[in-house]
Structures are given as structure tokens and as C-alpha cells.
Amino acid sequence: MNLFLICFVAGASILLSFLLFFHPMQQNVTANRWLGFFVFIMGCAFSSTYLIITESALSNSFLFKSLNSLQFLLAPSLYISILYFVHPTKVFRPIDWLHFIPFVVYVLAESTWNHGEESISKSSILNINSEVSFLVRDILPFLTLFYIIKSYLALAKHSTKLKLISSTINKVNLGWLVQFLFILLLTVMIWINDALFELPLVTEATPFVYTASVFFLAYFSIRQRSIFAFKEKDIRDISDVLNYEDHEPVESESGTFADVANDSGVIKSDTEGPAVGIVKPKPKRLSAGEIAKLSVQLNSLMEHDRLFLDNDLNLATVAEKLGVSIHEASFLINETTNDNFYTFINKYRVAEAKKLLSSSKMKELNILGIAFASGFNSKTTFNTTFKKMVGISPSQYSKEQKNQHK
Question: What span, in angstroms and rounded, lies between the C-alpha atoms of 165 and 100?
Fold first, then answer.
């Protein structure tokens, strides 16, 4: 491997971990601290590689073993970081400690099998054939692959759920983390090659891939926006709408403890045994009369006040304008339109864009101007949303309108 790149990535990772832990913008603080821990361990992993190549591990046995053990915290720290990114009210719970079991197992295995050894043999370092080496070389990459998949699923779920509370998600859907996961997936494939196939050309690419990943992560992590930029009093309600709230178990009629039912009355599980208590579905948040009254008010906000033109419009703002809770605003939109908040608002934006594309405004504004004038905050989002709802792109729609008026 390229020794210079290994040293560079190790140093850059440790520096980036410091910047993430003390993020200059103070956004997504806990998530960034866990992400910083992940990057720090990545730097430690390359420090371990440096010790192997330079054979310094022979005289630094304890340091080498410590750096190896830390690698079992690599994937869990990334996953926990992502959980904090996507859950607005996430707190560290006792069950989260289960993610650190592989780390404990490795430390115990290392302590037991190498007990009494003051140093590591040269063959153990260069050929990686010690009793516990298979845990690092063969088990760890597959464990990392498992956490990458879990992380991707969490981010995909987050991107979908954001549509319940925001009309604009392109800047907070954590797409950069999804791309980073794909880079990590590539490194894991290289890692697995090193464990099973040992193709030299692929192995040599590892430092370059890690160098790219560090630069990528540094660029986007510093540019990131606050994921849930809501007032503190609204965060709990937002979490509940997203169904991320940690529900406390309640005692059921059978005397066991069952999870609190969700809005549809579905009960997930109990904690005492197979019998699950009966929990009645929650009553509707608004009566028929309230729905009718608020529906008129909501239409007025859209048609008269043209609230949809606010590029950063979110559910909390609409709820405040209506004078209802965030729960009630979400229920109202779903009940009257069968749409989520994102679709509801963007239907108005697309309708506005169609008017502008068919009018003389098209001579004054380009497609980007039309996008912003309709309430969208980017050309890409505008094109994607318009084509999904209308079936053709904005430029094609404009051409068709021109041809009809000739």
C-alpha cells in the first residue's frame, strides 16, 4: 500500500473527527459527534495499517491490539450517528449498548488467547495468522456490511417520512450520507477481497478510496443543514408525526405490558409474554365539523395567501397559521386530500408553474426563474416533481403550450 496515503488518511481522519465533534455550525450536534467518533476510528484503523507495514507493531504490541479492537466500534458508531440524524428526539437507550457486543467479544478473545504475550510475532503481523486475526480480517468486513445496509434502510425511511412534515426535502434528506454509504460499500468490497481473494490491484486501491471518502465526508458534513429546524416546543410533535417517538409500555387488561398502539390502533408487541393486551384505536383528532371549518381555512391559506410560495414551508408553519397542533394539521391534510404534506403543497406549486409556463412570464423568466416563482427551491426538484405530476418536463410543457397558441 502507499505509505504516504495511509499516513495522510489517518491524519486527515483524526482532524475531521475533531471538526465534527466541535462542529462550527453547531447543527445536528449529537449525530455529528457520533460521526466524528466513526471518522476517528477510521483514522485509528489506518494507523494500525501503518504499524503493520512498518513492522512497528512488533515493538508496540499493546497499541496495535488496541487499534485493532477499536475497529469493531467503526460500523456501530456510524449507524448510531445516522439514527441521531434521522430521529429528532433520539436518546441513547440501554438497548443501544447491544451494538458494542462484537467489540467486547473481540477484546475478551484477544485477552484470553494472547494472555501473557508481551509482543506479537513477526509472522502474526505480516501474515495475519494469529488466533483472533480472523475476527478482524474475515468477520469484521461482513459486520460492517450489515451495518451499512441497516444505515441505508434508515436513511431511505427518513427520506420518505420527511414528506410528512416538509414541502422541500432536497437539502435535508441526507442524500450525501447515502452517497457516502456507497463509498463505504466499495471499501468493504475491497476489504472482503483482501480477506478472501487477495487480488493485489484491488487491495492497492484501498488508500485511494479512503482518501476520496474522507474528502467527500469533510465537504458535505461541513455544508450540512439542520435536519429538523423547528422550534423546540414543536420537536416532540414532529417526532410523533414521523412515528419516531419512543412509546412507553402501558398495562393491558390481561395484566401484561403492551406497547402503546399507534394511530391506527395496531399493537406491535408486549414485554411479558405472548398475550398482547387490547388497546383501542385512538379517536379522530378532529370532528367532522372542525374538519369542514379548517378545510376552508386551509384552502384560503393556499388560494388567497398563496402560502405554498414559501420555499421552506413546513407542517409546523401551516399548523401555526391554522391555530391547531401539528398533529391536527397533519390529520387534516391527510383526511381531506389523502396526500402527505409534501405532495399537498407541491401540487399547488406545480399548478402555479403551469400557469407561468403558459403565460407571458415565460418570456421574462427561464426555467429556474419559474421554479423559484412557483415556490420550489431548486431546478432539479422542480423538474423531478413537475414531470412526476404532469408526465412531461417543464420545458416540454412550455413548448406544447406555445404550439397550441400559434
Answer: 33
Per-residue pLDDT tens over the stretch 132-157: 555 566 778 888 999 999 999 999 99
Dist. CA 2–CA 400, nearest whole Å:
57
Assess if residue 137 is contained within a domain: yes
Q: Is 70:44 a contact under the CB 8 Å cutoff?
A: yes
Pull the grid cell for residue 359: 403565460
**Residue 399 belongs to domain with CATH number:** 1.10.10.60
Q: What pLDDT score was predicted for residue 331?
A: 92
Question: 126 has which bridge partners?
Answer: none
Cβ(184)–Cβ(39) below 8 Å? no
Cβ partners under 8 Å of residue 172, min gap 6: 162, 166, 225, 226, 227, 229
Spatial separation of the C-alpha atoms in residues 10 and 1, rounded to whole Å: 14
Residue 7 to residue 14: CA distance in whole angstroms: 11
Measure CA of the first residue to CA of the last residue in the chain; give whole Å.
Answer: 66
Boundary of a domain, candidates 175, 198, 223? 223
Q: What is the DSSP letter of 250?
A: E
Q: C-alpha 196: how far from its chain's center?
A: 31
Residue 155 to residue 138: CA distance in whole angstroms: 27
Domain contains 292:
no
Number of other residues whose CB lies within 10 A of the CB of residue 48: 23
Taking the C-alpha atoms of residue 67 and residue 301, their distance in angstroms, rounded to an integer, is: 58
One-letter identity of residue 379: K
CA–CA distance, 79 with 163 (Å, rounded to integer): 22
Asked if residue 327 belongs to a domain, the reply is no
Query: Mean pLDDT of all residues in the chain?
Result: 80
Decide: 63 and 47 in contact? Cβ < 8 Å: no
Q: How many residues does the chain have?
A: 406
Domain that holds residue 104: 3-223
